Amino acid sequence: MAEIIKIKSINLTKLNNAEYRTFMARFQNLIMNEEEEAETPEVVSLNTSDPLGISEELRQAFNEDFDALTDSVNQTTASEETAPMNALDKERGDLLVYLTTTISQTRKNPIEAKRTAADKLYIIVKPYVGASNLPRLQETAAIEGLLIDLAKEGMPEALEELNLTEIVALLKEKNKSYAELTEQRSNAKADSTVESAKKIRMRMDEEYDEMTTYAFAMNVLNPTERTNNFMSRLNVLIDETKALYNQRIALAKVAADKKKDSEEETPSVV
Predict the structure, then answer these.
(1) Collapsing DSSP states into helix, strand and coil, what is residue 5?
(2) Which residue has the higher pLDDT, 35 or 225?
(3) How many Å apart are CA 82 and CA 96, to the nearest integer?
(4) How far is residue 66 from each of residues 9, 154, 265, measured CA to CA in Å?
(5) In principle, which of 10, 20, 53, 123 could form an S-S bond with 15, CB 3.0–4.6 Å?
């Protein structure tokens, strides 16, 4: 009895857009790089026009959606990786960490005036410690809330006592600039005619499921070297994609832990 190769499962929704597109690009190569094989009278035909049993209409729909996904991912990537936004995000994050750690450390200052000012400020900044780890939009909102609190009665004087007035002014400037760039990017996306990757991916998920179902059925009813190779190579692709996804998640966790540990350290304040 011949061994029946089943297609391994993969949760495509977990992949980010770049990973998803890479997976579908390699899958596209698998279904397109074919050699027509002549059928024998003994073979039961599922779809005689295609070695994998996939209709031309389905192939065309998949190819069109893949091109649309490529356009959408390229646009999103270019937008999300805008150099000024990345630079501003790092600058405001560094300022926020410096501000909160300085206030925290100064609570131990032997000079009473500075210690008192730090104690007063710490009540305000404590809820915002670690805000630089938040998603960017949430970080923007958190910094805006902090700036409002630091403008309340008695806070400007306490900041002046700790020589932090300029730091707060810089934080306000960087956060405002970041918020303005965010709005510009959102407006650009709204004006764009490129379809969202989310909608395209929903269609491609269905197309992938349909094509792999046909290929599996063909390999059972009309097994050939071509169908068998397709199944084996697709399973290898799935395994590799899962491994790369797990690696990305693990590296992200390590990076987040390192950043958290770094921010929890309290550097000496001059």
Answers:
(1) coil
(2) 225
(3) 21
(4) 21, 58, 47
(5) 20
d(CA 17, CA 100): 35
pLDDT of residue 20: 94
70-120 per-position pLDDT tens digit: 888 776 655 555 778 889 999 999 999 999 999 999 999 999 999 999 999
Cβ-contact 128, 146 below 8 angstroms: yes
Residue with tokens 């996939």: 54
- Integer Cα distance of 69 and 67 in angstroms: 5
- Residue 206 neighbours by CB distance under 10 Å: 14
| CA atoms of 200 and 72, how far apart (whole Å) | 9
* Nearest-angstrom CA–CA distance, 59 and 207: 9
Sign of the CA dihedral with 68 first, then 69, 72, and 75 last:
negative
Task: Give 126's DSSP letter.
Answer: G
Q: Which of 194, 191, 177, 246 is nearest to 77 (CA)?
A: 194
Are 23 and 30 in contact by the 8 Å Cβ rule? The answer is no
CA 123 – CA 119 distance, rounded (Å) = 7
Is the CA virtual torsion 204, 209, 214, 216 positive or negative? positive
Owner of token pair 């046909």: 214
The rounded distance, in Å, linking the Cα atoms of 121 and 157 is: 10
Q: pTM for this one?
A: 0.55
